[in-house]
Amino acid sequence: MELSTSLKEENNRKANFWDKFGVPILLLLATLLAYGIVCHKLGFFLDDWYIILFQQKFGPNGFWIFFSQDRPLEALPFVIFFSIFKDSALAWALFALVMRWVLSLVFWITLNKLFPKQRKLWIWASLIFTIYPGFKFHNFSIMFALFYVFFTFYILSFYSMGRAIEKRQSPWVYGLWTLLGIVCLGIGIMPVEYFFGLEFIRPILLWIIHARSYPKQGKKVFKYVLLDSLPYLLLTIGFVVFRVSHSHAYIYKISLLDQLKTAPFATIWQLMQNAGKSLFEGLILAWGKAFIDIVQARVWEVVDFAALSFVLISLTFFLIFRQKERIITDKNCGLQVAGMGILLSLLSLIPFYAGDFTVSLDFPWNRFLLAMMPGISLFTAGFFDFIVRNAPIKNFFFAALCVIAIGSHFLVGQEFLSYWNQQKAFFEQLRWRAPNLEAGTTLVTADSPINKYFSGTTLSGPVNLIYDPDNTEPSLNYFFILLDSNQEKYLPDLTPHNEISISLRTLKFQGNTDKILGLLLPETGCLQVLSDGIAPAVPGTRYPFEKWQQLATLSNPNLIMFDTKSPATLPSRYFGDVNTEQWCYYYQQADIARQFADWDGVIEQYQQAKMMGFEPLNGSEYRVLTEAWLKSKEPDSLDDLSADLSAMFPNINQHWCNIAHELLSANTLESNKQNLLIELINQNNCGR
């Protein structure tokens, strides 16, 4: 008898590890697989860049000013966490990773606290919550690490509410848990409004919880629902009053009220249509799109990674579920949970529709799916729990869903890594080509291959960090504009002598169209500084050719300074090491030589690149060499020109038409050399 008891205790002790730690390990594994593969290789994206600029100028305490015109209650978290992580991309990436796991863990713990008889269902729901493929903003590490913090506290308000209900018989303990819940709610909804709509589920949850404890006692249930929800309701009402009365302090206005006043029925009908579309995309289409993206990618690394993920997730499922009696679950509750998920998803849309935003899978609107994730995870887990009854098949199915989601996040991570590398290359080349810039310079481009994750406004951050790192004034000496975006309003006319006045939150930039540096970063090839009205013929340009010509005419390379004692440096803490062993380094040096009419220097740079095994990446990059050859070697005939340059770069023969058109558009060659190019165009039947 003693031996049997001892064996039983030993079995229970072994089982306890996976009972206590199995789900946290599962969620950590899913978090690492989905978001941790490339996080250490990435830098900053979008708004994170000008947040870093502001921190560099004013330190953590400067965020009181930064948020004075938008979400003033968000300043304190930035002050706290920037005092810890400062401007380290790796620190912020790791913090975002940890908070993503903590958020999922708190979600799982809270579900178990409120509804302890559906533990198995909550494992699946928490896993879906962790790796849901529709939300793709994780790698914006500063912004969304803090959003994860707010979301975690918001969910903890429900956990605290559940603990308070448990301790109702002890008024002091009940009051302390309720107070903690109110504090968590305030942290969850007051800095940002993302999670405000979820608050409407609180009285419904309370009704379900109390109706379960007091069946057929409606008055008592109503009393407890009112008592338990009142503190949270008062805080919510107080925040709404503050938000409306201080709307002047917020960039984003509550526009829905005005729309309802002017066209109530049309607005309601539009809201219903939008909600249906958001639900369809968030609940269903996100999974289909993730699967299609994986299939269309045709990247073997994705297949290998998906296979590894499937094995790891399935093995963890086996270890967690191997003793069924440890996983409590009610039967036939999947449909109710799915219905609750739909309701929760609908409620989560409230703050975004109130601000007249779109919630969809399209970038950048998929960031709002973060608030929908509790509802989406409940719907997905509940729906498939209802339709798939066989336990092993159910586990297999959820493992397969995880593989799809994790594979999708793998592709997203690779996309972010590609954009980061392209951005790094852009600033490397800009620094090579422009060792320093005159204050007041506006950098202008279009057709940027990196503009998805780097808007012009945010690129102003690294430009100022590179060229003006010691400026601690509330002013910007440089600004970056993408003409094929809403920034076009800053340059409606590409003509001289026009003032440029731009505000970036509390930072101001004053410029003039006489101090514009036009740039072109093609999809394939090196950064080009525009000049002489030349619109480079490179692949991937969609911005009108005539406007490129106008920008190239307005662009002033003389804004670049070469004789400064302290040339700008590319901060290694943001961009890492710089590699000059590449074609674009030699191209930028050759273009500098061209700016100073050092034609022998141009040819020397091309020859050095050739010796290193490098050559131009697109046809336009042969133009600088051709111009130098025409101005220094004095070829007697077109055949001489073609033979000389073909001997150096045989591939130039494929690009004579573009080279000739670009050089003729500049009108900087003597007439006899222009005639050579016209002869070349006629000989090659070049059209335009």
Could you name the key traits of this structure?
688 residues; elongated; disordered N terminus; three-stranded mixed beta sheet; 62% helix; mainly alpha; four-stranded mixed beta sheet
Structure characterization notes:
The protein has 26 helices and nine strands. It has a four-stranded mixed β-sheet. It has a three-stranded mixed β-sheet with strand order 3-6-5, with no helix packed on it. Helix 12 crosses helix 17 and helix 21 runs antiparallel to helix 22. It is elongated and about 105 Å long.
Arithmetic mean pLDDT: 88
Number of helices: 26
Radius of gyration: 30 Å
Shape by Cα distribution:
elongated
Order of strands in the sheet with most strands: 4-2-7-8
Architecture blueprint of SSEs:
Layout lengths: L1 H34 L11 H12 L4 H4 L8 H11 L3 H26 L4 H13 L9 H26 L4 H19 L12 H12 L4 H28 L10 H7 L1 H34 L2 H22 L12 H15 L1 H5 L14 H19 L3 H43 L2 E2 L3 E5 L10 H12 L7 E2 L1 E5 L16 E6 L2 E6 L3 E5 L7 E2 L15 H10 L5 E2 L10 H4 L7 H13 L3 H13 L11 H10 L5 H11 L7 H11 L4 H13 L5
Parallel strand pairs: 2-4, 2-7, 3-6
Antiparallel strand pairs: 1-9, 5-6, 7-8
Helix pairs in contact: 1-5, 1-6, 1-13, 1-17, 2-18, 5-6, 5-7, 6-16, 6-17, 7-8, 8-10, 9-10, 11-12, 12-17, 13-17, 14-16, 21-22, 22-23, 25-26
